[in-house]
User: What shape does this take?
Amino acid sequence: MRLVFLGPPGAGKGTQAMQQAEQRGLRYIATGDELRKAIAAGTPLGLQAKAYTSTGRLVPDEVIIGLARELLEQPGAEAGVIFDGFPRTIGQAEALDALLRERGEALDAVLYFDVSSDAVVKRLSGRRVCRQCGATFHVESLPSQRGDVCDRCGGALYQREDDRAETVSRRLQVYQEQTAALLDYYRAQGLLVRLQADRSIAEVRAAVNAAIEATARRRAPKAAATGQGSA
Ligand code: AP5
Assistant: This one.
């Protein structure tokens, strides 16, 4: 199964995508996480990306498409993939279609996390991330049981540089200008599934589960016809 989790920054995509990928044995591909790793390691990709991410702008398409190709070619993507934060422009969406086509694959659904700007600002200002394993917490809605330390791996929690108030408003603007057009792009392909994401983490999880189960049921006859298993 190949899914895209789409929505504004802070909508809760990463929280749900990581959990679903773990639960269903799917590969989790998050371009934002890969860029942060590259920045921390000081690689050429990281040096190139930092100026964009720290100011809330999108990293150029050619860089991101190259990164996505590399990630898809790594082992583990055969059973299925959840893309989080990619694609973010029409150019990236067309490139993803082409990359999957080369592999004899296609997207099964795009889950759109519909959430208000007010909720986004609240979520991002309280977000804390584990420096070691990347797990995401929130000081109010999902605190670590161990305070400033990750209760999964013991790593230190930190606040992302781009979660500062002025960068958050820029990211929201960039989402409206460059990413929101993907809603029509995927609606036209019959792939878009809208989720009301202004609810609690558990309620959103139930909605995500239902959407994925419905996609799996729709996909089963197609997979049987082509001899592919369903993830
Ligand atoms: P990226 O890391 O992808 O950031 P984003 O899309 O802005 O998304 P976030 O990670 O901020 O939010 P999320 O929806 O995953 O929310 P989360 O689950 O963490 O990208 C960062 C930067 O990298 C970009 O700005 C850009 O520069 C660059 N980049 C990345 N990909 C790119 C691409 N494809 N093209 C070009 N540039 C790219 O939740 C947020 C908080 O809310 C957490 O604290 C969580 O605990 C809490 N929370 C989650 N759900 C709920 C809920 N239901 N109720 C209450 N709290 C909740």
Q: What stands out?
A: The domain at 2-226 is CATH 3.40.50.300 (Rossmann fold).
